[in-house]
Amino acid sequence: MIKKRHLSAVLTAASVFLAGCSSMPDYGLALSERFQSSETAATEKVAEPEAVASTNEFSDFLIARYASLTNDPQQAAQRYAGVALSDTGDTSITERAVFSALLANDFDLALSVSKSADETVLGQSSLPRLTLAAHAISSGDYDSVPALTTRERSGPFYALVLGSLEAWALFGKGDVGPAELTLLDAAGEDPYLRDIMLNSLALMEIAASQDVQALETLGVLEENLALTAAAAESYARLLASRGEEAHAINVLSVYLEQVGYSPAIEDTLNRIAAGEDLPVKRLSAAEGAALSIYVPAAALAAQSTDDLPGVYYSIALELDPQLHAARALFADALDRSGRSGDAIDMLRAIPDASPYHVTAIGQLAWALHRAGNDEEALSLAIETLSEDPERDLKIQIADLLTSLEADEEALTAFTEVISGDEALGVGDWRLYYARGTLNERLGNWPDAETDFLTAKALNPSSPEVLNHLGYSWVDRGLHLERGMDLIRQALSLRPNSGAITDSLGWGYYKLGDFDQAVYYLELAAEIEPDLAEIIDHLGDAYWMTGRRTEARFQWEKALTLLNDDEQEIRKIERKMLTGPETQAASRDN
User: Fold this and answer.
1) Is residue 153 a contact partner of residue 123, using CB atoms and an 8 Å limit?
2) DSSP alpha helix (H) spans, 387-513
3) pTM of the full structure
4) Cα(167)–Cα(181) distance, rounded to whole angstroms?
5) Contact predicate 272/248, CB 8 Å
6) Per-residue pLDDT tens for 254-303?
7) Residues with Cβ within 8 Å of residue 510, at least 6 apart in sequence
8) Lowest-confidence segment of 295-304, 428-437, 562-571 by average pLDDT
């Protein structure tokens, strides 16, 4: 069993589930498919440039292309922009330049390239028009927007956001009725997109002080569990302003239960529950337009592992620099794509007064860790814990401390969270599992075993818990048959897991059934050929079946995979001379 790998995977899942930023409800893969535009404007998969006029321009193009491939959007943006500004009629170069500039969060450069593009390019490409339309709205130039938001050649995503921008521009001019009709028209008949548009419609109705109509629209969304975070928060504020605090609290509580943690929702819920008199949020045209880009982009990001949503977060922040939800998600996308430095700058721009400041601290600490600034990350984590942060941030920090191998501090933080949960009569299996792994690493096996058993009781079908507890028993020579049964159950739930297959093979090794051990460990090595622990176990099993040359070959391979783990390296080097020290356990336990 690969213990550290399992711990990291489960803690990451816990962090995302318990401390994620606000987003649309999960509509499933259909939403992602609907947003995949037939255009190539917003990806690097655009056509090659029609022509590159000079050697210098061709050189800039190649440098930009390489920068894109090596995750350097700033360099790519500058180089592509240079070519695009000298050849304003090449659609593919313009698309690449605008995309890269927005991905680098350089809206001014994206705007400059978009302004220079000729009419043919603008007619063929939606992203430059989206950039121009956003700038026009943020500048109050509503009259120029309709010419930029034509949607005949746009795919579903661009049709949605361009139509939304046109609607908010009409709203900015005071044409509320046409604005609302334009919103609904932009979604077409697609039920997924219409839910998004209905949320925007409700926000527009509130912005226009059409509170009765807004309550009707929001009531339909509430019944269908289709409220976005922004709409749910605005709905609750509107209800509370009318003396319906209990209904407001229920709306927010249901959102948190059905969708997940949202800093803005949690903050508003706590303030209404405390009796605070909150004003109704009535959006400006620019704020509404920003949300109309952010919300579908956030929904897309929830089902995507690439950095494409960052392009739209950049535009949303141009429209509303105070949209800290977009800033937090943009930072997350930057960090996941390896741009930790940019993520750190983005997170530090979220002010203390923002509801997103708390989660930004956790994100910032993780970004510092991924950037290699472990000392600063540890200092921030310890400082944050000293201020007794709220539950979800404490989980993020405990997770980080585990990765930094500050095990005692992490154990204390997890224990505080678990104690608080127990006082409320609730329990989360992931927290017990995380604390169990820490107790085990610290040599506190009785406490670790108790935590694993509690995690198993809370979630009897967790492959991670079943495998970890089963392996720990077998590896210690405890409850061997029960341990093997748990591992087999875990493998039935996740049959393609190399780590769990390794656990079963190692269990047979400990039982002295070396032929079965070889069988399962060879399978594990096929599934995960680059994990040193599996390769090491396979070497041990080969040795015990008399296949000494093959055993040494596997141990040599394991040595190449261990990097700087000096203790494990010494153990394997010793085995290459004398064979494995571990002997098979008995079945008497």
Assistant:
1) yes
2) 391-403, 407-423, 429-441, 445-458, 463-475, 480-493, 498-510
3) 0.71
4) 8
5) yes
6) 999 888 888 899 999 999 999 999 999 999 999 999 999 998 888 777 76
7) 474, 475, 477, 480, 582, 584, 585
8) 295-304
